[in-house]
Amino acid sequence: MTSAPTLIVNARLVNEGREFDGDLRFEDGRITAIGSGLSARANETVVDAAGRRLLPGMIDDQVHFREPGLEYKADMAVESGAAVAGGLTSFMDMPNTSPPTLDAEALENKYQRAAGRVRGNYGFYMGTSTSNLEHIQRLDPLTAPGVKVFMGASTGNMLVDDPVVLDAVFRDVPTPIITHCEDTPMIEANTARYKAQYGDDIPAECHPDIRSREACMKSTQLAISLARRHGTRLHVLHISTADELALFEAGPLIRADGSRKQITAETCIHFLRFDRSDYAELGHLIKCNPAIKDPADREALVRALAGDVIDVLATDHAPHLLEEKQNPYTKAPSGLPLVQYALNAALELVHEGHLTTAQVVQKFAHAPAQLFDVKNRGFLREGYAADLVLIDDTPLTVRREDVLSKCGWSPFEGRTFHSRIGSTWVNGHLAWDGTQLVGAPNGQRLEFDR
User: pTM, whole model, 2 decimals?
Assistant: First the structure.
């Protein structure tokens, strides 16, 4: 699909650490000019940004769109629409589906499912199990952003805790490894202790004590030791504790000499906007793995994001039906739907003075592109894909009736953000006009420049 020539004028462009006034032209899905005082051409659509911020589309390196196998609660088509409405133009989807993505055939099946149905650009991770090492060894690194290792039990049955298998995966993987780090024996012992006291109806506020900071720390230390032993590129997902921050190197993802950090960290938007005090009101709606923890952890994570200890901001979008969340603790699933309002929530950190818009763009767009070698996306650069987000600085109150995710609810309901998503373009096509999704699905398969 080709896109009509479009010129955005009078924008406040945010890109590569800078904010500057300028214009941007795109056609045939690509940015063709960035400058000042660009003149409109015949038959060109002109959008007057009127000083609003223009960002590259966000790249979410961690989503669970639940397809195949769990389409009753989410699917690629619907969730990608919610993402685009939230300014997230590319996503990387997790392998713990049904069946899980454990070989090249299952991986390609997901790409085929996405083609023509998905509103954002898409990549799919290969998963690991105790028995698919040969599939990981044969993986074409151009077909997946990375290989996911569940070093702690979460959703599904993909826990890899055999030390021999773990060592071999870290030794042989041809892509970056991304890890879920929690120590399962510690969690199981904590669960048994709380069940002895409460039965199945454990209070939700006990979740951060069951999925404890010690469980996170122990598993993260193990992953880092394996990566250092084998020289593996390791990306530790959803850091939730202040304790783990000391394990990571501060500084830019791409150093001044052009080298890249070997071991990187990600945190998620819910760890920056919620803390233990919110369980009293929201209960299982904010139950997730790893758990949302203390106010001091939330504050430390925000500082780590600003200080380049944490490299990437993501969502870990993991929808479940509301009725599932209303089950007793031991049966209530973990995960939150987040893609539609994650960028709004991140921009609250700008309004509060914790981050600049340029830092949000670095963590939520530039860094995922750099870390996973995404080709020609994640930046406002001539020749790059026209994945763009225009921000309106007008208040937005989250209402359940506006939620686009199939699960139909958001943990942010009732909260008012200072900014909203005014427009989203995907590959040069307007996909969100500020009030509704428009046009046909236009997402493309992500390419990796390795």
Answer: 0.97
